[in-house]
């Protein structure tokens, strides 16, 4: 008969048995459930949901994402957000083709079951916020006295900054209780939902809240945020940095300047689109009669000058370049020079042009393509383990 061991050994053995017999925690159960869902999903072809919004014929906003509308003070960021909202209400009312609603070209996808939520943090409750809500619904074809179905709103202006995070969480939870469709949340202004937009912990906490809502509540966020003074493309504070990194789409709104003075021309520039190339640009103006934005005259000289490509005509789109990469990079990474030569040969373009197009695809959100295994990938570049060569490869996103 074997010895039972020392008293310490018996205590350790008893503790181990107790730990092994302990029921799994809520976190472990949640992780197991997520693992089971992923295990079932990764054995089947993945079908991506269509874009939630189009800007003319370009996809710009996708469901279950966080998106930013950024710009300096006074460039009509909130009005751009309102036009997105008006387009949704027009769709819900069966009036998707209203020229006033689509004056700047926003078009929501058909067939989605929406609830539009507008959360404001800075306008007063007596005239500013009510007027914004009126503009949003009348642009969609409703009368002042009407209450559009699928539309709700909240103001956090009376909440202290320290309480706005909790108030936003409660509002989203309350909206989800009696609705099983897609929540589209306009959040104006994002940085007002934390006590300090330069505080790392508060910034990450707010971004985590948005990501949880995106995944658990079937929500999409259009968040308005100010840019740093004097900046041309940097959203405010540490929160702006984190939000830009996590955002699927970043739309910059700015006033076009002549001789360093703002004009009446408004530029809408997509700095980032996770599933399409960045750099998409549109122009609008502010209409004094409707107090809203309308598309700028495409034939106006100032629009023609800025809409005209500044470089030589493009010989191959980013999509075309992406499409040939899975075959070229199927077996192994390829050096920068060899890949550029292969791309140049297939597309009948110059080697230097091929290098420029490949460099564009390294930008975050520049484009995605499925590799031979069906994984959604982006182009990456790294240094070889030996020597000074740079190697291109497709990396699962």
Explain this structure.
The chain has 397 residues and is α/β, with parallel strands linked by helices. It folds into two domains: 53-307, Rossmann fold (3-Layer(aba) Sandwich); 318-396, Arc Repressor Mutant, subunit A (Orthogonal Bundle). It is 36% helix and 24% strand. The protein contains eleven helices and 16 strands. The protein has helices spanning 7-21, 26-41, 77-92, 128-139, 161-177, 200-216, 237-246, 301-307, 318-328, 336-347, 351-360, and strands at 53-55, 58-61, 66-71, 106-108, 114-120, 151-155, 182-188, 219-226, 249-258, 261-273, 281-287, 292-295, 334-335, 369-370, 376-383, 390-396. The strands form three sheets. It has a nine-stranded mixed beta sheet, with helices on both faces. A four-stranded antiparallel beta sheet has the order 13-16-15-14, with helices on one face. A three-stranded antiparallel beta sheet has the order 2-1-4. Strand 7 (182-188), helix 6 and strand 8 form a beta-alpha-beta unit. The longest helix is centred in the middle third of the chain and has 17 residues, at 161-177. The mean pLDDT is 82.
What is the CATH homology-level superfamily of the largest domain? P-loop containing nucleotide triphosphate hydrolases
The computed structural class is: alpha/beta
C-alpha geometry = globular
Task: Give the tally of structural domains.
Answer: 2
Instruction: Give the H and E element order.
Output: HHEEEHEEHEHEHEHEEEEHHEHHEEE
Q: Helix fraction?
A: 25-40%
Mean pLDDT: 82
DSSP helical segment count: 11
Q: How many angstroms separate the termini?
A: 58 Å
Major pleated sheet = 9 strands, mixed
Rg (CA only): 25 Å
CATH topology of the largest domain: Rossmann fold
CATH class of the largest domain: Alpha Beta
Approximately what portion of the residues adopt beta-strand conformation? 15-25%
According to DSSP, the number of beta strands is 16
Q: Based on the structure given, which CATH architecture of the largest domain is correct?
A: 3-Layer(aba) Sandwich
User: Strands of the largest sheet, in order across it?
Assistant: 6-5-7-8-3-9-10-11-12
| Assembly category | single chain
């Amino acid at each position: 008969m074997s010895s039972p061991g020392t008293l310490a050994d018996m205590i350790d053995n008893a503790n181990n048995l107790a730990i092994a017999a302990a029921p799994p925690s809520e976190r472990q159960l949640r992780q197991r459930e997520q693992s089971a869902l992923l295990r079932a999903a990764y054995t089947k072809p993945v079908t991506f949901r269509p874009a939630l919004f189009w800007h003319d014929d370009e996809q710009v906003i996708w469901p279950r994402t966080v998106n930013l509308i950024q710009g300096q003070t006074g460039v009509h960021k909130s009005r751009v957000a309102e036009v997105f909202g008006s387009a949704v209400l027009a769709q819900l009312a069966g009036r998707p083709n209203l020229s006033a609603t689509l004056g700047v070209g926003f078009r929501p996808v058909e067939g989605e079951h929406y609830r539009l939520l507008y959360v404001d943090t800075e306008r007063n409750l007596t005239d500013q916020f009510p007027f914004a809500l009126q503009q949003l619904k009348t642009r969609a074809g409703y009368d002042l006295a009407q209450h559009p179905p699928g539309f709700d709103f909240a103001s956090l202006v009376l909440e202290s900054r320290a309480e706005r995070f909790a108030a936003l969480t409660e509002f989203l939870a309350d909206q989800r209780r009696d609705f099983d469709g897609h929540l589209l949340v306009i959040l104006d202004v994002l940085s007002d939902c934390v006590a300090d937009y330069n505080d790392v912990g508060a910034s990450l906490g707010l971004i985590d809240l948005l990501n949880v809502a995106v995944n658990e509540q079937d929500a999409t966020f259009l968040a308005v945020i100010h840019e740093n003074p004097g900046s041309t493309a940097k959203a405010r504070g540490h929160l702006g940095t984190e939000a830009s990194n996590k955002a699927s789409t970043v739309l910059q709104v700015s006033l076009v300047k002549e001789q360093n003075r703002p004009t009446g021309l408004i530029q809408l520039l997509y700095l980032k689109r996770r599933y399409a190339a960045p750099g998409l640009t549109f122009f609008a103006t502010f209409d004094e009669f409707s107090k809203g934005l309308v598309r700028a005259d495409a034939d106006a000289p100032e629009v023609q000058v800025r809409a005209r490509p500044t470089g030589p005509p493009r010989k191959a789109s980013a999509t075309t370049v992406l499409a040939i990469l899975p075959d070229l990079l199927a077996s192994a990474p390829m050096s920068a020079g060899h890949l550029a030569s292969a791309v140049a040969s297939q597309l009948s373009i110059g080697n230097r042009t091929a290098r420029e197009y490949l460099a564009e695809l390294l930008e975050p959100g520049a484009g995605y393509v499925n590799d031979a295994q069906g994984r959604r990938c982006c182009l990456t570049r790294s240094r070889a383990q030996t020597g000074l060569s740079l190697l291109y490869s497709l990396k699962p996103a």
